[in-house]
Specification:
CATH topology of the largest domain: Aspartate Aminotransferase, domain 2
CATH superfamily of the largest domain: Type I PLP-dependent aspartate aminotransferase-like (Major domain)
Number of strands: 14
Largest sheet: 7 strands, mixed
Structural class: alpha/beta
Number of domains: 2
Shape: globular
Order of helices and strands: HHHEEEHHEHEEHEHEHEEHHHEEHEEH
Helix content: 25-40%
Strand content: 5-15%
Radius of gyration: 22 Å
CATH architecture of the largest domain: 3-Layer(aba) Sandwich
Length: 487
């Protein structure tokens, strides 16, 4: 098996966050009273939406008559109301009222090159003209996409295209169970791996279990377990207990980055997990929906030089176009997938009428090719470093307890620490809505100042960012931080 050790100078991460330092600051943040934006400033920020976003408000009100909540995507449920966008270009979004925003949502992370990238659009136009979006039979871009993923992430020996990250995580655990003959899946508490029945378990906050599993029978999560983020002893305990209960099919985790990045693990954590999986005969699944190619050409696994058995991909494998995701890994494990409808040895049944369509395979191939050739991960990571350093300077200037750190182009900034709350806190049910409302207000304040973040607590930089976008962003942070009530 080939190694996955690309040169680290092409990766987004210039450093690894100090896990203990971040944990200490986060604990102080959640132990301290919430800091709010001054009422007069918040009133001014909210007035922006009424005065400058009238068409968005009208459109969303009409949409509520036909769509639950007025929008189709969870990322769009923003306070005080969702904005309707009509244009995306590079580092910017433009709403229907003509307002421009620096875009740090970047479609949830996959548009590493910036939104509406011309080269990808040209590829899409060519495929649509020649094939249409879907043909149902083999197209050369299926092979080109699988090949370029393997060339950059050699531990992905076989690759199967799917339609979303949620579907890809679902398929990964089905493959693991088929290959190992075991049922138990162990995930990192608080991490998000899509919304399939088996994985809506301990989302956002560790040990919340089935708190958000409405409409999901208990049987669906009967074999889903969790360990405390970054705690190797917690994982070992679960694996040991499972030895008397059928063993463990797989350990599923994000190597670093988005949801799990709220609780920073030490840099050697994934290597230790690899060792435990080998010891207990469990497969290691890396969810790289966000980190694949955003972390660097070889993904998080290449940066860490830790081999997963299976890797889960998201919209990066379509260049941000819809209907994209996938699973890849060791050839013998991936051969557990049923290839067509046939009898014989037990195989994991996998479908997907729109999977591997020519449009998304082509845009994915050209996006990855461009990301690697343009060194996009490194450029976006450099912008992430600059922005994080600038945010930290402002935090220090205003003597705020807020916390900022980054994994290259994945930036965390915490003003309330809502996902750092503990289920052992007797007041957690009171604190959850208060602290969630706090980040919603902060996100609205940033939007009113021309910057769109992910849920008021995360930023994805891209190759399209530059000194102009960073200055506008830091000016917005400065404006909002200057209006925080400090006791």
């Amino acid at each position: 098996m080939k190694e996955n050790t690309g040169k680290l100078e092409h990766y987004a991460l210039s450093h690894w966050p100090d896990a203990d330092h971040v944990a200490s600051k986060m604990q102080k943040l959640v132990d301290a009273p919430l800091l709010h934006i001054k009422p007069e400033a918040m009133k001014r920020y909210l007035a922006y939406f009424d005065e400058k976003c009238a068409r968005s408000k009208q459109m969303i009100e009409e949409a509520k008559e036909y769509i639950p909540g007025g929008v189709q995507h969870n990322l769009a449920f923003n306070y005080p109301f969702p904005l309707a966008m009509e244009k995306a270009e590079g580092a910017y979004l433009y709403d229907v009222d003509g307002n421009r925003y620096v875009d740090y949502l970047q479609a949830g992370g996959p548009t590493m090159l910036g939104s509406n990238y011309p080269g990808i659009n040209e590829a899409a136009e060519k495929v649509l003209k020649e094939n249409g979006a879907v043909i149902g039979l083999f197209n050369e871009y299926e092979m080109k996409l699988a090949k370029i993923i393997h060339e950059n992430m050699p531990w992905v020996e076989r690759y199967r295209s799917l339609a979303s990250g949620t579907e890809s995580d679902m398929v990964a655990i089905r493959i693991a169970r088929t290959f190992t003959g075991k049922a138990n899946i162990v995930k990192e508490g608080g991490a998000y791996h899509g919304w399939s029945d088996q994985l809506v378990y301990s989302l956002h906050i560790p040990y919340t279990g089935r708190f958000e599993a409405h409409g999901i029978p208990k049987e669906c999560t009967a074999h889903t377990q969790e360990f405390y983020p970054g705690n190797i002893d917690s994982l070992r305990k679960i694996l040991e207990e499972n030895e008397n209960n059928g063993g463990t099919a797989a350990v599923l985790l994000e190597p670093f980055g988005p949801e799990c990045g709220t609780r920073v693990a030490h840099r050697d954590f994934c290597a230790k997990v690899r060792q435990l999986c080998d010891e207990f005969g469990a497969l290691l699944i890396f969810d790289e929906v966000v980190t694949a190619f955003r972390a660097g050409p070889g993904g998080a696994q290449g940066y860490l030089n830790v081999r997963p058995d299976l890797t889960v991909f998201g919209k990066i494998v379509s260049g941000g176009f819809p209907m994209a995701g996938g699973v890849g890994g060791r050839a013998d494990i991936m051969d557990s997938i049923a290839a067509g409808v046939a009898g014989g040895a037990a195989k994991a049944y996998v479908g997907g009428t729109l999977s591997a369509n020519p449009l998304t395979c082509a845009t994915g191939y050209y996006a990855i090719k461009e990301i690697v050739e343009k060194d996009a991960a490194k450029i976006a990571g450099e912008q992430g470093d600059k922005l994080t350093q600038g945010i930290q300077k402002l935090i220090d200037r205003y003597h705020l307890p807020f916390v900022a750190w980054n994994f290259g182009s994945i930036i965390h900034f915490e003003v309330s620490g809502v996902m750092y709350l503990s289920v052992q806190d007797p007041d957690i049910m009171k604190k959850l809505p208060e602290r969630y409302a706090n980040i919603k207000a902060f996100g609205a304040a940033m939007t009113a100042n021309g910057v769109i973040t992910l849920a008021g607590s995360r930023i994805y930089t891209s190759m399209a960012d530059n000194d102009e976008t960073l200055k506008a962003t830091l000016d917005a942070f400065d404006e909002v931080f200057s209006n925080i009530e400090v006791e």
